[in-house]
Design a protein that fits this description.
8 helices; three-stranded parallel beta sheet; 51% helix
């Protein structure tokens, strides 16, 4: 508790990456109760989906009944590695979330993520990937609704357009310089 309090004095936003072990007293008695938001991340495997249901039930059950007594409205569900035709659809997820809001689904693109990881460019996936970037943007908007953010893909498109415009202007200037008549240089010495 003391460490978390010190962190909140030092930083505007403190993110704790914890286990999902709701039986852990540090989690149930300290981290979850003082959290402004709780993000539960699950993939679409049957075990993860049904584990999510059990976790939401246990965490939101009143303390008097053996749960952690956490407000359901503090919990947002994020589905990681989302893909079609895996046997779990939106209806099943909504039931499994047990009233907790499903914030977004981060699409599965293992090839892009592995390549970015191998080239130490994971930030590029978060900032510029056509499908994954918007999902991360949704997460940030959900958990920090009062922050004014610019969509990274729109920002990137603006950067690309500005660079293309600068290149075009440079090409036009070069063309103009080549097509304009040049005056012969004056000689300073000699005849």
């Amino acid at each position: 508790q003391n460490v978390i309090n010190q962190l909140t004095e030092m930083f505007d936003i403190v993110v704790l990456d914890t286990s999902v072990n709701y039986m852990d007293s540090l989690l149930a008695e300290v981290a979850l109760p003082i959290a402004d938001h709780i993000m539960f991340v699950a993939d679409l495997s049957a075990g993860a989906v049904f584990g999510m249901t059990r976790w939401v039930d246990e965490v939101t059950t009143e303390r008097e009944k053996g749960g952690a007594g956490i407000d359901l409205n503090k919990i947002g569900i994020v589905i990681n590695k989302s893909a079609r035709n895996l046997g779990v659809d939106g209806e099943i997820l909504a039931q499994a979330a047990n009233g907790a809001e499903i914030v977004c689904a981060i699409p599965l693109d293992s090839g892009a993520v592995i390549a970015a990881s191998n080239h130490r460019k994971l930030n590029d996936i978060i900032l510029y990937h056509d499908l994954i970037s918007p999902a991360y943007f949704e997460i940030v908007n959900y958990f920090f609704p009062d922050e004014i953010l610019s969509d990274p893909l729109v920002s990137r498109a603006t950067e690309v357009a500005a660079a293309a415009n600068a290149t075009q202007q440079a090409e036009v200037a070069a063309d103009n310089q080549l097509s304009s008549p040049t005056k012969p240089k004056k000689r300073r010495f000699g005849r």
